[in-house]
Amino acid sequence: MLWGFLTLVLAGCLPKEERQKVAAKAETDYVSARDLSDIRVGYCSPTMNGPFYGALEQAVRSTATAYGMQYLSTDGQGDITRQVMAVEDLLSRGIQILILNPLDPQALVPAVHLARSQGVEVFILDSTIDEGTPYTAALFADNQLNGELLGLWLAEQNIAEPQIAIISGNQGNPVGREKRLGFVRGLADGQLHRNAKTSFDVVAHGWGGWNNNGGLAAMEDILVAHPYVNVLLAENDAMALGAMKVIQQMDKTDQITVLGFDGQKEAYEMIKAGRFAATAQNSPKILGETMVELVVKYLNGEEVNKVNHTPSVLITSQNVKQFHDPNALF
């Protein structure tokens, strides 16, 4: 049992607190007609390693407690077996709602079936799970659309022959796959519309484990083998920021256009400084707030969509000031 990673928060207050390219934050003004103080909601994170997951957990927690629900959380610690145990731990604590951010789309399926067998409603957050799994609703960033926005943006830049390196998170992850395929599709479509032909090469691909150090190590290998790379697509900003340390050390800042995903505040700072070209928003604050609102709407008897997406936003030097909050957790 993972008792050391379990927290319980009780709250009794209830304040009133498709895609589009302009929404800067999630709406949090839905008012519950039902008293939710008897509801225990459990959130299971795949890991708490990294600012994204910390900010996501904080958003889920603060929104759930604002609605007066009892809140519990567990940490899968980046390990599939531990995350399965963490879900079982939450179920043993008598939750009625499970919000699950699955580390693996297949390995957590039995845990969802176990939850449903106990009458627990399951909501999937941030990462996908296998189709056919009996969950109530899911919420993700539209990763393919975010990738397309980055690809379309790159097609409009004055890079005659993009020589692209891609740094992915981890093998088999469906979120990363959607991001890179969306990017390639957007770039190809943008070039076809602009030039009536495609003209780019993906010359290198590495794995960065979704973290800063992984991005740094992957970029070192890429630039040793392919010093002519002029575009980097990293599947999250953390890996991009790590890679940028190598790019700077090798004096290639002016050569390489850096693209990322998520909207990490450090990436925004680099965009403002002119060193990071663009990122696509996947806000943990918006994800957490919107997920809990879906739960509350369901508990109030409203019909909720099976699959939901947060707004897709391309962030460049043109609009970064709208999104950069230096005091944000992420």
Description:
With 330 residues, this protein is an alpha/beta fold. It folds into two domains: 3-140 and 285-311, Rossmann fold, CATH 3.40.50; 143-281, Response regulator (Rossmann fold), CATH 3.40.50.2300. It has helices spanning 51-66, 80-92, 109-117, 143-155, 174-195, 212-225, 237-249, 265-272, 284-299, 320-323, and strands at residues 7-9, 40-45, 70-75, 97-100, 121-125, 137-141, 163-168, 201-207, 231-234, 257-262, 278-281, 307-310, 314-315. Strands 1-3-2-4-5-6-12 form a seven-stranded mixed sheet, sandwiched between helices. β4, α3 and β5 form a beta-alpha-beta unit. α1 (51-66) runs parallel beside α9 and α6 crosses α7. The longest helix has 22 residues, at 174-195. The protein starts with 6 loop residues before the first strand and ends in a 7-residue tail after the last helix.
For this structure, the CATH topology of the largest domain is Rossmann fold
Give the helix tally.
10
CATH class descriptor name of the largest domain: Alpha Beta
CATH H-tier superfamily of the largest domain: Response regulator
Largest sheet: 7 strands, mixed
How does CATH name the architecture of the largest domain?
3-Layer(aba) Sandwich
Beta-strand percent range: 15-25%
Strand order of the largest sheet: 1-3-2-4-5-6-12
Order of helices and strands: EEHEHEHEEHEHEHEHEHEHEEH
- Helical content, roughly? 25-40%
Low-confidence stretches: 1-27
Shape: elongated
SS class:
alpha/beta
Number of strands: 13
**Rg to the nearest angstrom?**
20 Å
Distance N to C terminus? 30 Å
